[in-house]
Write a structure and sequence with these properties.
This protein has 168 residues and is α+β, with helices and mostly antiparallel strands. The chain has helices at residues 13-20, 60-67, 81-89, 97-101, 141-146, and strands spanning 2-4, 22-27, 32-37, 40-45, 48-55, 70-75, 105-107, 113-115, 120-131, 156-167. It comes from Bacteroides mediterraneensis.
């Protein structure tokens, strides 16, 4: 992997996040977890390049995100859809996702967890976090569509500074 500047990133992030999906990984080289995510985005906020993601507290990865300030967003490409299916449907509490998926993790120069299969890795630092709240919805129909017994609790939103961009 080689580093590029954020301004050199040519990906359509609507497609990368919403269609290709991403792995959100947090923790330490000794103990980490990852999950598939398809909600989020990128942009500029507070004069910084940022990504924003949404994680339900029920997810095992949430515990790792809460413990540290750094995480990665890894984009594996369409060829690795099976990895995303495993990491999005199985809990790291119950299985070894690395073994089950065939992921090949490594520690980046900055100490983040990356994957050999990734075509793009965003190394990120947490800047802000807050829960989505029912009272703040303008379109109340979204609450029943995405939350409740059938779907799960409200997400926590994280705004992340993109510190490094790695590409193959």
């Amino acid at each position: 992997m080689r580093e590029i500047s954020v301004s050199e990133l040519k990906d359509n992030m609507f497609d990368a996040i919403g269609k290709e999906w991403m792995l959100v990984t947090a923790g330490t080289p000794e103990k980490f977890n990852m999950m598939t995510a398809s909600w989020g985005g990128t942009g500029i906020l507070w004069g910084k390049p940022v990504a924003f993601i949404f994680i339900r507290p029920e997810r095992y990865t949430y515990e790792f995100i809460e413990k540290g300030d750094k995480l990665t967003l890894s984009f594996l490409g369409e060829a690795h859809r099976e990895i995303h299916k495993i990491c999005g449907s199985q809990s790291g509490r119950d299985i070894d996702k690395v073994a089950a998926s065939g992921l090949k993790p490594y520690v980046t120069e900055e100490g983040y967890i990356g994957y050999e299969q990734a075509r793009l890795i965003l190394e990120c630092k947490k800047l802000y976090a807050d829960f989505i709240e029912a009272d703040n919805f303008v379109d109340k129909l979204l609450i029943n569509r995405w939350y409740g017994e059938e779907h799960g609790g409200f997400h926590k939103m994280y705004i992340l500074e993109i510190e490094h961009v790695l590409v193959k």
